[in-house]
Amino acid sequence: MKKLLVRRITDNALVAALYYIITILLAGAAFNDIQFRIAEVFIFLVFFRKDFIIGVTLGCLLANFHSPLWPWDPIFGTLATLLSAVFVAYSKNMVMGIIYPTIINALVVGTMLHFVLEAPLLPTIGLVAIGEAAVLILGYMLFKLLSNKPAFLNLIMATNKEEEDKKDE
Q1: What are the φ/ψ torsions at residue 157 (nearest 5 degrees)?
Q2: Three-class secondary structure of residue 164 per DSSP
Q3: Which of 25, 49, 101, 165 could form a disulfide with 84 if both were Cys (CB 3.0 to 4.6 A apart)?
Q4: How far apart are CA 53 and CA 89, in angstroms?
Q5: Quick check: 169 pLDDT over 60?
Q6: What pLDDT is recorded for position 168?
Q7: Mean pLDDT over the full length of the chain
Q8: What is the mean pLDDT of residues 53-62?
Q9: What residue spans define the domains of the chain?
Q10: Is 158 left (phi over 0), alpha (psi -120 to 50) or beta?
């Protein structure tokens, strides 16, 4: 039991660190009105293990401390990721990992950018949605491929929820 808890904490720390590092290394594309935050693909991990909500959210928070939109991005950007992660974690279909985060980030981050940068609201929401969707479509394809690999599922201590749901029907 204690060993499993240590493993879950370690896994979440690793996810948070990877999210943070990738976002900081690609910061030019990760912040402001046109965003291609590659680390957002980690949102798909919560589809396989709900506890990864912690790692993804913590990684986002830490990365957002470097945002030029301090203090708003750590608050609202992280809130958008947390809400997205919760919705994805309780989804029955992995494609929702594209839909929920795209809508939530577009509305929350787009509105924040509107108020902070005085950017036009609807175009800004649209730009955030396009950037988020582009990254998540690529992430979906990657994780859809990985979800059929027992080695990947074993590595992250998870099961393929979509396959289990098909068996239950």
Answers
A1: 55, 55
A2: helix
A3: 101
A4: 8
A5: no
A6: 58
A7: 93
A8: 98
A9: 2-168
A10: beta
